[in-house]
Amino acid sequence: MLCCLPIAFGSLHTGSRLENSSSNTETNSLRDPADFVAGIGTKAQTLLVALAAILTYLPTLRFGFVYDDDIQVLDNPAITSWHFLPAYFLKPIAGFYPGLASAHYYRPLFFIWLRLNYFLWHKQAWGWHLTNILLHAAVSILVLLVLRKYFPGSKWALFGALIFAVHPVHAETVAWVSGCTDSLMALGLLGSFYLWLKSGESSSSLLKLGSLLCFLLALLSKETAIVFSAIVFLHALSGFGRRSSDLTKLQTVRSAILQTLPYAALSALYLAARWQILRGLPDEAPWIHVSHALFTVPSLILFYVFHLIWPQSLSFAYDLPVVARVTEPRFWLPVLFLAILFSGFMVWYRKVRNPNILAGMQWFLLPLAPVLYIGVFHRDDFAHDRYLYLPSFALSILIVMLADYVSKLARGLQGQRVAISLAGALIAGLGLFASIQARPWENNLLLYTNAFHMAPQNALARNNLASEYAGRGRYLEAIEILKPLLKEHPDLWLANYNFGYANYKLGNLSLAEEFLQRSIAIDAANADQYVYLGTTYFKQNRLQEAARQIQEGIARRPDQIGYHFALGIVYLKMNQLATAREEMQKELQFHPENSAAREQLKAIDKQMAEFFH
After folding, report:
1. Which of 9, 114, 457, 585 gets the most CB atoms within 10 Å of its CB?
2. Which long-range contacts (CB under 8 A, 24 or more apart) does 38-41 make?
3. Cα separation of 179 and 165, whole Å?
4. pTM (2 decimals)?
């Protein structure tokens, strides 16, 4: 991904139209605050944007690993060695780790990023958070560079980039280690777009090749980058990316198609490779009717619009109801609001004829489009702030346009000073608020408690809080959350498993058996449920059944710590010393640090020696 940056950073040394100044301009900049902003050099602006992004999220350096970081980072053997590198391009994510069996993704660059971080920091969380912050700073710098291309004569491009750098809606992407897929993709797409704009100013084949390479890296980071071809086409159609403006409509369309073709061809190759590696589409049964998923789209778009404009009460999960009929107010009210908003933008465009208005609409809608169909997600897990990471660039474009307009209205030295002061106050306020909104991502208890308060009806939030309670030994609190959840969603695998686990820990063996059996019936893939069911049988002295269930778990995760040890204890209780010894040896083969297995092996050897003596 870093290959997108050297060319972009190299342009910082070439200067731009904003830097051209005479001695008269230098004199005026001392008197006019707005001119002073414009007079800040490109390098200084770059540094200011990077510092804003870094300082806003600097408190996350003390955060730990949360949510599914345990699966993707802590317990992921595929990132512990470089010899896995070729396989990153040949396997889906699920191919590396059984815990991600339901992850139908192909993101090799994401895995390279994880491997690089593991190489640098191992399991030191602060290092992972540091690289996430630096990645966000790099994206913010590219936002500045692209804004300067959109608004070459504006004094407010810096302001738009600073808004992106400190926007609270980025808290999930930056503060969550595994949330870096969106910033990796944004780095690639914005780098590709910037180089495409630069290539329109010259005939450099190197710039065009660099743009395609950055686009490829974006595709390998996250599949939603596929929309970039549409962005290039619509921008070319609007007049961006070409040197001549004396083209007929037919020539304009032809030029747009020719400029888009390389990106479309690369997209087609990527889709073909992805299809081959993932072996088609996921075979999971849909949890929602297609029409209901489509009827929910307007309310989901409105949800993202509000979060972009008013980013408060952020969470990793939300209560966003599914819309079942067009007659529901939750369908036609968002449609009406969005229609008014769209009409307003179109009236604005027709009045000022500024193509940047259309560009902003494209940057918001197109990157968001792939995540609007909720049928491809799990229930109660389809709305996330991280999906707004790249679409929030549209807000930066809009902010620069509005700031330009207000700046013209605020005539005189005093008005300009007020405008600059308000802009500074807004950036400082947003930065502070972003730090506050990132706070729940410090640990799982804070994250899930916040989600439970923000979205008390969300099944994922409730289950995850119960799971965290159980992990901390607060089993009764976990059960109190899971009971009503199971009444509402009796087929929810996570709730059944966690309820069985909590009752097992409390010694309620009949309930543990019932709900662990239910969880196995719902989803037979997870290995832990078999082992806990087996140990439940063991405590009931049902040894043959215990051994059979633990073997089922081992068949799914033969290298999981404690599995062979548990089976060895069962065989030991059955007085099958040789088999018990064999299981202890297997446990130590996978986990030589397991001292309990080593002690049991010594005890078995001693017992066998006494028996044969």
Report:
1. 114
2. 38/155, 40/158
3. 16
4. 0.88
Work out the widest C-alpha separation in the chain, in whole angstroms.
104
Helix locations, 200-246, DSSP H: 205-219, 228-238
Closest to 158 (Cα-Cα) out of 517, 481, 403 = 403
As a whole number, the mean pLDDT across the chain is: 88
In angstroms, the CA 598 to CA 613 distance is 22
The percent of residues above 90 in pLDDT, for the chain, comes to 71
Decide: residue 274, CB within 10 A, 0-12 exposed, 13-18 middle, 19+ buried.
middle
Q: Can you tell me which residue has the tokens 């290539």?
A: 199
Q: Say which residues have a Cβ less than 8 Å from residue 44's Cβ, sequence separation at least 6.
A: none
For residue 171, which amino acid is it?
A
How is residue 469 written in tokens? 């309670």
* C-alpha to C-alpha distance for 515 and 521, rounded to whole angstroms: 10
The amino acid at residue 463 is: N
Kindly give, in sequence order, each residue whose CB lies less than 8 Å from that of residue 511, ignoring residues fewer than 6 positions away.
499, 500, 503
**545-550: long-range contacts, CB 8 A cutoff, minimum separation 24:** 546/570, 547/571, 547/574
* Tokens 């049964």, residue located: 285
Rounded Cα distance between 35 and 19, Å, is 11
> What type of residue is 54?
I
Identify residue 526 by its one-letter amino acid code. Answer: N
Tens digit of each residue's pLDDT (9 = 90 or more) over 471-480: 999 999 999 9
> Which of these, 200, 225, 195, lies nearest to 212 by C-alpha position?
195
State both tokens at 208.
């065009």
Question: What CA–CA distances, in Å, run from 407 to 33, 41, 348?
Answer: 11, 20, 18
Q: Which letter does DSSP use for residue 284 in this model?
A: P
